[in-house]
Structure formats: C-alpha cells, structure tokens
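Quick one:
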Amino acid sequence: MINSLYQLSNKGSLRTLSFILALFLTAAFFLNLNQFSTALRTTHPAWILAIFWGLINLWIHGIGFDIRRAIWQLVFLPFIGYFTTIIAIVQHWFL
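Output:
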C-alpha cells in the first residue's frame, strides 16, 4: 500500500512541484532570515521540526532520488512535505 501511494506521487509534474516548493521555502529561509527566524522563535519546536522534515522530503523527491524500501518511502512521503510546506508558506506570508 505504501509503495502504491509513493508511486502515485512519483510523476514528473509532482517532482517539479516538489522542487519548486522546496526551492521557494529554502529561499524564504535565506532571503528573509531575520523575519523568518523571529517567527520561528515563537512557535512550538515540534512544528519547526515538521517544517524541516517536510522541506527535506520535498528536496529528496524534487531532486529525483529513487527510494526502494517501503519503510523509507513512508518516512519520506512527498505528501507530508506538501502539506507542511504549504501550511508553513501560508502561515508565514498570509497570516
């Protein structure tokens, strides 16, 4: 089941989306460092770890790294990265 869920996101357009979202959030870290670090300083540490985990998921998926084992496909599932990254971007720029 995990393999079929991972293969659902293993398409070229979703890999491109992963790469663009990862690039966008990484640029937000580097280009807006003072405001972003101030916003992260007041949030819960578990949410910060979830943002970084989602960002790592998107970089791995966006670059095209092929994961073969089911346990690592579950750990680095791109849908988790999409969810956390989109929430982090909306929370940072629109709230």
